[in-house]
Design goal:
OB fold (Dihydrolipoamide Acetyltransferase, E2P), 410 residues, alpha+beta, five-stranded mixed barrel, single chain
Length: 410
Amino acid sequence: MQSLLQGEKNFPREGEMIEGIIVSIARSELYIDLDGLATGIVRGYELLEENENGEAFKVGDRVQVTVMDLENELGLLELSLKAANQTARWHKMHDLKRTHELVKVPVLEANKGGLVVKVGTVPGFLPVSQLTVDHYPRIEGGDKNRILDHLQPFIGQIFTICVTDILEKENKVIVSERLAWEEQQKEVLSKYKVGDTITGTVAGLVDFGAFIRFGDGLEGLAHISELSWQRAKHPSEILQKNQVVEAKIIGLKGSRISLSLRALQPDPWAEVENNYKVGDKINGIVSKLTSFGAFVDITSDIQALAHVSELSDEAVQDPGQAVEVGKSYNFTIIKVDAPDHKMKLSLKTKPTIGESDNDKDENILPEETQTETPIEEMKEPPEANPATSGKEKIKKETAEEEAKQLTIDV
């Protein structure tokens, strides 16, 4: 053996994967010729465990094996089918990830975070956030039990996916259905750009916005703040399912499409600086209280902010000590910023006119205080539609966290 190692450069090395030909079969042993360099043996439980297709090994079959020991007690190379198959599996997974190849996989299980699939012989996890628009659960409030109810009917179906992350140590891969869909829709998506106006149909309403379907199977999300200049607690106050609408594309990243109906509507703030001046007295209704002040409705489309420090001549810590929601008050306008859609008011006898130390609170828009963020949007920007760019890498940290929900035995 030592002389062979010294005299033959191509002699197999321990840990190397190599192809050989079955030359003899015993009851629980395979004898394999390795290109005439040596004979190795595979024996024991591996013969049953790695024969996944149920087909019997035959003399003359070519098989991939890994060298485990250069010389066992029989003077033969100890070989492993299992180790070779595992190496081949992960090589295949890395190839699938690199090429974005589309793969059809069976859905085995469902849990509150997504679907369990099988990519060849490797367990895979398809997170909810990586489902296509047709399968994505539009659940009010992101109730996980309802999400699970929505996912259960997919068990047994075949989905087309792309491999996006490989967790080899955990014997899992992360996959995406929406990236696979995007690969198939490249030509359709290329027809659109930011600034385009589309005509579509309201496909679904959730507490954070409206899904609008348009074109050839495309779908975008219009956040509740982009539905109208009019404020609403729920999109159903503005739109109805199956309603035909026009919207402007304001974000386009791969198949992630953000829409705005408001962008096509006249801006009610366009004439604000002509109609409202600093120092004017104005009547407004308090519509919402926050820790830093009160939002005041001037019209149905224009809302102003009265900071807590401007609600009373007396120092108050809680805006509710000075004003009540639903009641009207006579305010003084102390600042108008039409381009940024902001107006500041005061109830004080001697209000603070113009800039103040409290201006930082103006950065909190009224709609941001009255809309909830869905589970999906907590991980991605607010303009997100449930489909991301195929070329955009899904962060491994997020994938690993979601993969922990994969609870199948491997």
